[in-house]
Design a protein that fits this description.
By secondary structure, this protein is an alpha/beta fold. 35% of the residues lie in helices and 19% in strands.
Length: 504
């Protein structure tokens, strides 16, 4: 009988008891092949572990299992001594776990390395740094001296460039023994997890689901496979991404990656979270990105890096889309085209009267886009001076916030964050007095805001922020690939992501 293929993704389980672990394994299954990392330090009661774990593994037909029991001083939860930790890991090996992971702190605390006690399991000696990413080569050389099958190095990424340190380490030691597993933790380290196999890592780690991660930046197994297709990346895969201070929460990776997959474009879209644009620029240039999206707070700062910019983006003073062509960085603002696209389906825009609530970046994109098609624009914001400044710059009319709900307009656009989860009960203005036909809420978290719900209850035409999100993302896809975007699939991906996040 052929030996089953070894798993390349191990799902980290941090259960209070073995029943919970077994339920997770049964739910996920082991085909296509996945393994499991069992965190024994999370068990509330480890008495009888060897007997109970052996029975569980036998029932599950012995899935590939890494047993680890991380002590508190190594970032875990185990309060016992090193000797007690070694005995638990040895019991797990005797029960049938094929791997044992022991951190370097425990090995150093012993006079004699404990590896023989874990037979017949293979051994991983691991290093975890939850503060930063130091000189990884020195750490690998120290750990590689031990007679073990694998070395694991996990360090916290303070910036995107820390991923490049992981990449450099993996490339330098790709063919050496023991095997090297290296990754960057934290939201800025997500790229190292997604790119693990392309970078030469023998296996990587995932979580059971969105709310079960046991390490910073750890992604759910279904996201690793269905969104990022981590096992199918190769050297020809083109890289794209989204840069911002909260990119790890972006819905764009799910939306763009499903579009690439549907159109058979060999490309990957990554969440690139950083607090410094210069950090991303070095990261993107090192990995030869083909394009990227820009979110807050870098939409204005990116402009000085561009060789060419779409006239509308230049007028707005913000760029959210970059394509790299023949080495030149070229910029667009697809928020503006999305505004006119979704409104054109409901209104004849030339001559329409449109009220914009807010005077920030989203409001500015909407105002310039609508004035470009000869709509009459009114701007209202709680900070009246900011509203007047935007109105002057675009040839619109500023309206005092307290008078906004008394206007007679064809459409009202909420370009403020009011109504966004977790404050979903809020709404920007009272619709009772406002005379309008169309209500457009740029908030998409949740999809059905209170503002839209009230508008629909009054029989008004409504446009959700989700529709705009998909429209601007579709335009980005078309700029990058030259192909028409699979909008229905992109919307479906966004809805699924919002549903998993409990947003709608």
């Amino acid at each position: 009988m052929a030996k089953p293929p070894s798993p390349r993704i191990f799902v980290s389980l941090a259960p209070p008891n073995l029943d919970v672990a077994e339920a997770h394994i049964e739910t996920l299954g082991t085909s296509p092949p996945i393994g499991f990392e069992l965190r024994l330090d999370y068990l509330r009661d480890n008495s009888g572990l060897e007997h109970d774990l052996h029975k569980m593994l036998a029932r599950l037909r012995y899935p590939q299992m890494i047993a680890t029991c991380r002590r508190v001083d190594a970032g875990g939860h185990f309060l016992g001594s090193v000797a007690e930790q070694i005995e638990l890991l040895a019991a797990a090996a005797r029960a049938g776990c094929q791997w044992v992971d022991i951190e370097i702190e425990s090995v150093k605390a012993l006079r004699k390395p404990p590896f023989k006690q874990f037979a017949p399991a293979k051994v991983i000696v691991s290093y975890h740094n939850y503060r930063n990413t130091p000189d990884l080569n020195t750490i690998y050389r120290r750990l590689a001296r031990f007679p073990v099958e694998a070395v694991k190095i996990a360090s916290h990424a303070r910036e995107l460039q820390d991923n490049l340190k992981v990449l450099k380490l993996l490339k330098a030691n790709r063919r050496r023994r023991p095997r090297l597993v290296a990754l960057a933790m934290g939201n800025s380290g997500i790229c190292s997890r997604v790119m693990a196999f392309r970078w030469g890592c023998p296996f990587t780690y995932a979580s059971v689901g969105n709310h079960h991660a046991v390490a910073g930046g750890q992604l759910a197994i279904d996201h690793m496979r269905s969104v990022y297709h981590v096992e199918h990346l190769d050297e020809r895969t083109q890289l794209y991404g989204v840069v911002g201070t909260h990119s790890s929460m972006s819905l764009s990776p799910a939306m763009q990656n499903i579009a690439f997959h549907a159109k058979r474009v060999n490309a990957l879209y990554l969440p690139c979270e950083t607090g410094r644009l210069s950090d991303f620029l070095k990261f993107a240039r090192s990995l030869k990105f083909a394009g990227f999206s820009i979110t807050m707070p870098f939409k204005r700062a990116i402009m000085k890096e561009l060789a060419w910019m779409d006239p509308m983006a230049e007028q707005i003073g913000a760029c959210n889309t970059v394509a790299i062509r023949h080495g030149k960085w070229m910029g667009w603002n697809t928020d503006s085209s999305a505004v006119t696209e979704v409104l054109t389906k409901r209104l004849r825009l030339p001559g329409s009267r449109i009220l914009i609530l807010g005077a920030g970046g989203a409001a500015r994109a909407a105002a310039f886009a609508l004035r470009a098609v000869n709509a009459d624009v009114f701007v209202a914001a709680r900070r009246e001076a900011v509203a007047r400044k935007l109105a002057r710059s675009v040839g619109a009319e500023a309206v005092p916030w307290e008078n906004a709900d008394s206007l007679d307009v064809d459409a009202v656009i909420n370009a403020t964050p009011v109504g966004m989860a977790p404050h979903a009960d809020a709404h920007p203005i009272d619709l009772a007095r406002l005379r309008t036909r169309v209500v457009f809420d740029m908030v998409y978290f949740p999809v059905e805001t209170r503002f839209l719900s009230e508008a629909r209850g009054r029989g008004l035409v409504t446009i959700s922020g989700l529709e705009m999100l998909v429209a601007q993302g579709a335009r980005q896809f078309e700029i990058w690939t030259g192909q028409s975007a699979p909008r229905a699939l992109m919307e479906q991906a966004v809805r699924q992501s919002l549903s998993h996040a409990g947003a709608g």
